[in-house]
Amino acid sequence: MGAGAFSSLAEAAGLLAPGRVVEPRLDEVERRSRYERWRTFVQGAAQFA
Prior knowledge:
The protein has two helices and no strands.
């Protein structure tokens, strides 16, 4: 996948500790804002592909 570090998502997931939960470091408003900026960037970049 991606850069070739893993052959599949299942392989990568298998390396994670079972039941481990990572809490967000940012509040929901900031996460949504950053996500929207990322989507806008990706949509713009897709026009060049």
